C-alpha cells in the first residue's frame, strides 16, 4: 500500500554537492529524507519558491513537452529502496491507459512540484528507511538545518503537534514562528 506524503523542505546536505529532500507522511508521524544532486536540488528549491529561470531548464522543457502530448502525469511513487538507491515511478495516463516511467528521485520531485502532482511512498520503503517524528527535534536532528525552516513548514509541523496533543512542543513551535515573523 502506498502512503501520501508532502514535500516539506529541501536543505543543503552534510554531503558535499547534495541537497536533502524531507518528505512527511500526510496526517501521520513518519518521514523520509532523500539526498539529491546539487543541480536538481537548486532547481527544486527554485520551483518550490515559484521562481522561474530566465530560460527553460530541463524540467521546464519536460513539462512543456508533456503539456503538448497525450500523456498526463498523475502522481509520483517511491516504490523501492535497493542497495542504497530509491526507485521511483512517474505514473501517467495516456488515452485511458495507465503507464509509468522509471525516474530518479530528483527528476520526479522536480516534475511533481512543477505540475503539483501528489507524491506517494510504498509502505515498505517508509517502514524500512523512514523515521518517526516524535518531536520537532527529530526533524531538526535529521536535517541539521532548523534555521532554514520557513514559517509555512513550521506551521505544518505545529498543526501535527497540536493534533497529537503535544502542548509543550506546540508552544515552542509557536514561539519560533513568532520570532521568524518578527524578523520579516
- The poorly predicted ranges are 143-147
Largest sheet: 8 strands, mixed
In CATH, what is the homologous superfamily of the largest domain? Bifunctional nuclease domain
CATH C-level class of the largest domain: Alpha Beta
Number of domains as seen in the coordinates? 2
The general outline is globular
Q: What's the overall average pLDDT, rounded?
A: 84
Identify the strand order in the major beta sheet.
6-5-4-7-1-2-3-8
Q: Could you characterize the architecture of this molecule?
A:
The protein is of the alpha+beta class. It has two domains: 2-135, Bifunctional nuclease domain; 150-184. It is 42% helix and 34% strand. The protein is built from seven helices and eight strands; from the N terminus they run E-E-E-H-H-E-E-E-H-E-H-E-H-H-H. The chain has helices at residues 38-48, 58-67, 105-115, 123-129, 136-143, 151-163, 167-183, and strands spanning 2-12, 18-25, 30-37, 71-82, 85-94, 97-103, 119-122, 131-132. Strands 6-5-4-7-1-2-3-8 form an eight-stranded mixed sheet, with helices on both faces. Helix 2 crosses helix 3 and helix 6 runs antiparallel to helix 7 (167-183). The longest helix has 17 residues, at 167-183. Mean pLDDT is 84; it is low at 143-147.
